Amino acid sequence: MKKMSIAVIVSLVLVGSLTFKYANAENSTNNLNYGDVIQYAINENSDLKILNEKIKLADEKYDDALDEKDEEANTSIETDKRKEVYHLKAKLELENAKWNKEQKQNQVDLEVTKKYYSILIQDELIDLQKQQIQRLEKQLEKKQKEFEAGITSKNSLMDYELILEQSKIKLEALNNEKQKMIMELNINMGREVNQELILEEKEIPYKEYKVDNLDETIKRMRETYYAVTRVEDEIKATVQDKNITQQYNDSDQYDNYIEGLEDKIVNLNYETEDEQKDIEYKIRSDYNNILKLSNEIKIKKLDYDNKVKLLELADTKLEKGLITELEYRPFEEDASNALQDYEKAKLNYYIAIEDFKFFIR
To answer: What is the C-alpha separation between 9 and 12, in angstroms, rounded?
Structure first.
């Protein structure tokens, strides 16, 4: 049996990324790939179902407004508003509904993606812990024979028994945490909470991300981002509504209504400025975070490589009897923890990039 994670970790360093492997499930319905998980989660999300209904209703309302656009109403002002205003407002409602769905779907996508890869990371940690336990069990057998032969002391034997028990407790904790993750993902997909779930192997995507010209991106987004164009379209519809209403305000009967529209236009103009400032802040802030996470990956990778080297040295010393199992164990734990930190750093980086790319698309 190979030492704990030497073969595994060293090979991972050479490859540069992890591939997580899972046993085949007897029930193929529990074997899901990444695309399946995302699609199930999107299909079963209650908020998305509600938003789909809102889109359907808004679409029907918009079709009705277009059908009535050239129809005569009971009053001239209503006829003009049918022609120039109502279909614009209905279109805005439809676009808002579609926009809200896109935002929610992206949120669901990223949340489920993070859970998917987190389970894969957890499963790799479980595999490493099992390897540790298998090695400790063999070491304990050897110590037991040495004790029976009077070569080693009872205290030394008890140390190995304690370490093995601690390793089994940690494995149980890792399995419990994984089960919690699976239950959460099952809920996201509309499955039974305790239903078995085996995920297809998939590497955490990792590629350095850079924006060539951040200022140009900000300029473009200040002009074209939906939160800005939506307000601009709403201003146009409101101005059109006001202009038509003023044409029929000979007796000042629409004064209050017109005043309300004017106040709305002023507020919408301020809203445009606020949205543009928020867009710039978000882009700069999120991109700075991506750069920070990129540096964090590099730091975690260096730490991981260093822990692997220390583990290799400790492995050699253990084989030669220069250190005890008790002294060897911290090196093993450090390598496993460094591996976990490195993979989590890659995952956080990937999620941050995908969210940023969705925003500036």
So the answer is: 5
Q: Residue 116, Cα to own-chain centre: how many angstroms?
A: 9
Exposed, middle or buried by CB within 10 Å (0-12, 13-18, 19+), for 135?
A: buried
Helix (H) or strand (E) holding 15: helix 6-15
SS3 category, 32? strand
Give the count of beta carbons closer than 10 Å to the beta carbon of residue 289: 15
- The string of pLDDT tens digits covering residues 90-117 is 999 999 999 999 999 999 999 999 999 9
Total H helices, total E strands in the chain: 10, 2
Q: Can you identify the CATH homologous superfamily of domain 20-202?
A: Outer membrane efflux proteins (OEP) (1.20.1600.10)
Buried/exposed 312-331: b ≥16 CB within 10 Å, e otherwise: bebbeebeeeebebeebbeb
Model confidence over 14-40: pLDDT tens digits?
Answer: 333 333 333 333 333 688 999 999 999
Q: How far apart are CA 120 and CA 172, in angstroms?
A: 17
> Would you state the torsion angle of the CA atoms of residues 220, 223, 229, 233, taken in this order, to the nearest 10 degrees?
-150
What's the confidence (pLDDT) of residue 169?
96
Q: Which two tokens stand for residue 31?
A: 């074997």
